[in-house]
RNA sequence: GUGGCUAUAGCUCAAUGGCAGAGCGUCUCGUUGUGGCCGAGAAGGCUGUGGGUUCGAGCCCCAUUAGCCACCCCA
């Protein structure tokens, strides 16, 4: 083609051609007007944000996959998800609005992941955030919106999977499990949902990351104390274990000081001592860890129809002496969804749901395509009551969700309900000689004023090849303008499909085309 | 991040280590102002990129980039 070699497309992104472009625009516009009907106002936030916005709450997985870079002394990123960006904009501009504030959006997000089937490095999220409302009515509205949005664009085969992170967090609080290990467990909750090997995979991971936990052969108590510790230092450790917090801390500092070891690293002295103490005490965590794993395993089995799962969860809560609050929230939420008329067969409860974003604090949900497609998960969302505060705002409850637009497209394609906008011109105007040029331009404009899509032949070519062109592009009507037509002050309208022609005035031609094209 | 398969014309693919080809698409022509078929012709390639082995590499070896698939995670 040329002496330069072709520049390749950047990995994991795609060019969207007119067929898909039209369909995607249609989906996006349908969803947004659906949201408008519930009072959600559109908000477009920038693609570029400070990386810091995501570092705190987005979850390690997303942070690791951010397009994150240094530019002129600023650390910037391409947004990896919409919620944090929308909340940032809300706190900048909108937080004096009366609550609740309802916002919706559609925009590109970027994640540096290995591209695959329904996974791209640039993809489009379409979603809503409902800010300043707690409770089942808010969550119900969000889930209802997510489902009816699918109904509206024509996706019929889907399943709503609902969970609640509060059950697990409350249990972990209840038994007093340490922070880092605790978020590790929450993050890996999903593993247990897998049939068969999920549990042992989780245990392996724990052991890899925390080698001080020894595996045991007893499945009901999978970890035991690391017995290698039984040397002389064990006595010291035992002593420290039996002191209270401040006493132990002072003892360690004094001990180091007496050996002339100074803590002159960059880290805070207290932090170092804290970590040391918590490591020493780690084996105290073992019974808790075992208990947590047992509980998580039980919880992950609670998966099925709402009634069954709720009943079993009640029993579980009783056995572990847990607060019923999250279960009651779920029951209320189901009531709300029922009032909205949700098809109950499309609802599944899955108390093992934990989701990758770490900012979720309560009810959560995902919707899966159950049709024969590669779309998989169509959307996800839930309650995030801490995020706004974490981003520097007042404590404000909030919920939201986002669809993956590309996946909606795949699902619709699989269900063969794709509505694709038409970009093909309806009329081709063909001037035969130079004398007809200015007339042709004027006529083409008049047709466009009637909201028709009109092309004019601008290549020097014969009538024959212009007709051939119209045929190949699928243009249904052509207007031929030559000396004959000009003399009669008329146009020649040719209908390509039937190969019929008529000589008529422009108004008649326009009326004819509009009638044929609009219906 | 781990593992497997692949890369030749715009697209789909050929070519024993020895002249880089076909079909489709694009453009022109088959004589006056009329398209789908048919016929003739043209354009289009440093064989993804960079090294190596060889008298000689599209083919063998190494690296790299990109694509597909399975894990993992997500939208």
General description of the model:
By secondary structure, this protein is an alpha+beta fold. It folds into three domains: 16-156 and 370-422, 2-Layer Sandwich (BirA Bifunctional Protein, domain 2), CATH 3.30.930; 192-287, no CATH class; 427-518, 3-Layer(aba) Sandwich (Rossmann fold), CATH 3.40.50. It contains 20 helices and 19 strands. The chain has a nine-stranded mixed sheet, with helices on both faces. Strand 8 (214-215) and strand 9 (223-224) form a beta hairpin. The longest helix is centred in the first third of the chain and has 19 residues, at 18-36. The model has no long low-confidence stretch (mean pLDDT 84). The chain binds one RNA strand of 75 nucleotides through helix 3, strand 6, strand 13, strand 14 and helix 16.
List the helices and strands and how they pair.
Blueprint: H1 18-36, E1 41-42, E2 48-50, H2 52-55, H3 60-64, E3 67-71, E4 74-78, H4 83-94, E5 101-110, E6 122-131, H5 136-153, E7 158-164, H6 165-175, H7 179-187, H8 198-209, E8 214-215, E9 223-224, H9 233-241, H10 245-258, H11 269-280, H12 285-300, E10 303-304, H13 306-319, H14 325-339, E11 347-350, E12 363-369, E13 377-383, H15 387-390, E14 398-404, H16 405-415, E15 427-431, H17 437-449, E16 454-456, H18 463-473, E17 477-481, H19 483-488, E18 491-495, E19 500-504, H20 506-518
The structure holds one RNA strand of 75 nucleotides.
């Amino acid at each position: 083609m040329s002496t330069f070699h072709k520049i390749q497309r950047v990995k994991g992104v795609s060019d969207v051609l007119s067929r898909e472009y039209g369909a995607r625009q249609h989906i996006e516009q349908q969803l947004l007007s659906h949201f408008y009907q519930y009072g959600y106002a559109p908000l477009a936030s920038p693609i570029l944000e400070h990386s810091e916005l995501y570092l705190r709450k987005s979850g390690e997985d997303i942070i690791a996959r951010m397009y994150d870079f240094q530019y002129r002394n600023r650390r910037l990123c391409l947004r990896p998800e919409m919620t944090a960006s929308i909340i940032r904009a809300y706190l900048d501009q909108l937080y004096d609005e009366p609550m609740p504030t309802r916002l919706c959006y559609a925009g590109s997000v970027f994640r540096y992941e290995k591209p695959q089937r329904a996974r791209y490095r640039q993809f489009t999220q379409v979603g809503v955030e409902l800010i300043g409302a707690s409770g089942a009515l808010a969550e119900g509205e969000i889930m209802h919106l997510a489902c009816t949005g699918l109904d509206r664009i024509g996706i019929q085969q889907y399943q709503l999977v609902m969970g609640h992170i509060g059950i697990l967090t409350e249990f972990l609080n209840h038994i007093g499990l340490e922070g880092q290990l605790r978020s590790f467990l929450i993050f890996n909750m999903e593993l247990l949902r897998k049939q068969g090997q999920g549990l042992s995979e989780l245990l392996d991971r724990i052991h890899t990351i925390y080698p001080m936990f020894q595996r045991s052969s007893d499945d009901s108590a999978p970890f035991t104390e690391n017995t290698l510790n039984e040397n002389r230092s064990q006595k010291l450790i035992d002593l420290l274990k039996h002191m209270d917090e401040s006493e132990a801390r002072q003892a360690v500092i004094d001990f180091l000081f007496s050996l002339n070891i100074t803590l002159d690293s960059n880290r805070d002295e207290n932090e170092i001592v804290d970590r040391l103490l918590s490591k020493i005490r780690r084996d105290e965590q073992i019974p808790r860890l075992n208990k947590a794993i047992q509980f998580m395993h039980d919880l992950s089995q609670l998966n099925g129809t709402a009634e069954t799962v709720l009943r079993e969860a009640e029993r579980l809560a009783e056995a572990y002496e847990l607060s019923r609050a999250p279960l009651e929230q779920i029951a209320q939420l189901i009531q709300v969804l029922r009032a909205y008329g949700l098809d109950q067969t499309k609802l599944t409860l899955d108390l093992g749901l934990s989701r990758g974003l770490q900012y979720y604090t309560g009810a959560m949900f995902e919707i899966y395509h159950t049709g024969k497609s590669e779309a998989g998960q169509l959307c996800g969302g839930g309650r995030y009551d801490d995020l706004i505060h974490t981003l520097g705002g007042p404590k404000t409850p909030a919920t939201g969700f986002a669809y993956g637009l590309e996946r909606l497209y795949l699902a619709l394609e699989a269900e063969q309900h794709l509505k694709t906008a038409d970009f093909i011109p309806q009329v081709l105007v063909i001037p035969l000689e130079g004398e007809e040029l200015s007339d042709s331009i004027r006529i083409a404009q008049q047709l466009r004023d009637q909201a028709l899509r009109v092309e004019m032949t601008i290549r020097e070519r014969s009538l024959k090849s212009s007709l051939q062109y119209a045929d190949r592009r699928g243009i249904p009507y052509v207007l031929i303008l030559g000396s004959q037509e000009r003399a009669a002050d008329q146009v020649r309208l040719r209908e390509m499909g039937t190969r019929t022609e008529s000589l008529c005035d422009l108004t008649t031609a326009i009326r004819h085309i509009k009638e044929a094209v609009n219906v």
